[in-house]
Every structure is written in C-alpha cells, then in structure tokens.
Specification:
Blueprint (H helix, E strand, L loop, with lengths): L1 H51 L3 H30 L3 H27 L10 H15 L6 H31 L3 H34 L4 H10 L1
Helix pairs in contact: 2-3, 2-4, 2-5, 3-6, 4-5, 5-6
C-alpha cells in the first residue's frame, strides 16, 4: 500500500510539473517577445533620427539653391546694363522683359526655400560672375550703335541662358530625387522660361541682327569714331 501511495504521489507531482511548464514557456516567450519589440523600437527610433538629419545630397541641393539665388539677383543688374547697350528695339525689349522675368525667378527661389523651411540665403556663384564679366569684355570689343555689338550681346546672353538651363534642369531632378515635388514644380516653370528666352534670342539673331551685322563695313568703325568727335 505504501509503495502504491508513493508511486501515486510521484505520478501526481510529475503531472503537476508538466502542467506548470507550459505556463513557464509562455512567460519566457512573452519576455523574449517584449525584448525583441524593445529592440525593434530602438532600431526604429534610430532610423527616424537618421532621417531627420539631411543627407549629403540634400546639403548639395541647398548649396546649389543658394548659388542660384545669388546668380539670379546678380543677373537682374547685368540685364539692365545689357538692355542699355543694345541698339535694336527687339533686343532691348527682350532684355527688359527677361529682367522682369528674372525678378520673378528670384521670388520663386525664395518660395522654394520656404517650402523646405529654409531661410533664403545667397552664396556667390563664380560661374555667373565669370559669364557676366565675359559679357562686359565682349561688348567692350565692339562699337556702340552697331549690329555687331547687338550680335555680341546676344551671344553673351545666350551663354548665360545655357548655364541657367543646365542649372535648373539639374535642380529639378535633384528636387524630385529628394522628394521635394512642390519645389521641383516651381523650378521647372523657371526652366521653361529660360528655354523660351533662349529661343527668342536665337530668333532675333537669325532674323534681324546677324544679317545686318554681316553687312556692316569695316569703315563704319571710323565713321562712328568721327561722329563721336
């Protein structure tokens, strides 16, 4: 009887132990799950922190915007000078119109900075400074009041336009890559306007200025010098 009782007690203890073990496993799994979730949350928080800091591409984009902002403001002044140096009415009008359009480009860039929660800031654009300096030099090599000077002004202006077309084309693509779709949209409007100006200058050169400049005799230089006296 005692042996049977002892065996029964052991059997019952074994059953109790087995009944308890599933609960222990469940507690262990719950603990592991909590630890895993905690690790995932920490990783997620780290990822969020990394996303808040700007990427190298983002920094490059902002730097280029600052250069373009400087370039457009500098160009407004240069266009005033070029407009006063032009002889043909169509070229004078083209420069005057583009001067006002360029002022609109400045405003668009300020809006782009605002969309990105950035303060508008200028960074000197060496390329634009060089282009406008070259424009001054090429104009100085021609005579005032000649079609040859107008041809030189168009060449100088189109060099500027081609630079701006390249600049805005690149900025639009970078803005899209970085997810600044609204910024890309307003910069693309400026790109279209730069392209339209380039086409207008080409039309003025081909239909009016270049043919007239080709007919100007070399003696005209001496005549102009005498007229100035």
């Amino acid at each position: 009887m005692k042996t049977t009782s002892s065996t029964t007690i052991k059997s019952n203890n074994t059953k109790n132990t087995k009944a308890t073990n599933p609960r222990g496993k469940a507690a262990t799994n719950a603990s592991r799950s909590a630890a895993t979730n905690g690790t995932k949350k920490a990783a997620s928080a780290k990822t969020g922190s990394e996303q808040e800091s700007p990427s190298l591409l983002d920094k490059l984009f902002v730097s280029l915007l600052k250069e373009t902002y400087w370039a457009e403001k500098h160009l407004v002044k240069a266009l005033q000078t070029m407009q006063s140096q032009a002889t043909t009415e169509s070229l004078q009008d083209a420069f005057e119109d583009h001067m006002y359009v360029t002022q609109k480009h400045v405003s668009r860039l300020e809006k782009a900075f605002g969309m990105m929660e950035q303060e508008p800031e200028e960074k000197k654009c060496i390329a634009m400074e060089a282009l406008t300096t070259e424009a001054e030099q090429i104009v100085a090599e021609t005579e005032d009041g000649t079609m040859t000077r107008d041809a030189a002004l168009i060449i100088a202006a189109q060099k500027v336009e081609h630079y701006e077309i390249a600049t805005y084309g690149s900025l639009v693509q970078l803005a899209r890559t970085l997810g600044y779709d609204n910024v890309a949209g307003i910069l693309e409007k400026t790109l279209w306007e730069e392209e339209e100006t380039d086409l207008l200058l080409t039309d003025i050169a081909e239909s009016e200025v270049n043919p007239l400049a080709d007919d100007e005799p070399q003696e005209m230089t001496a005549e102009l010098e005498m007229a100035e006296l």
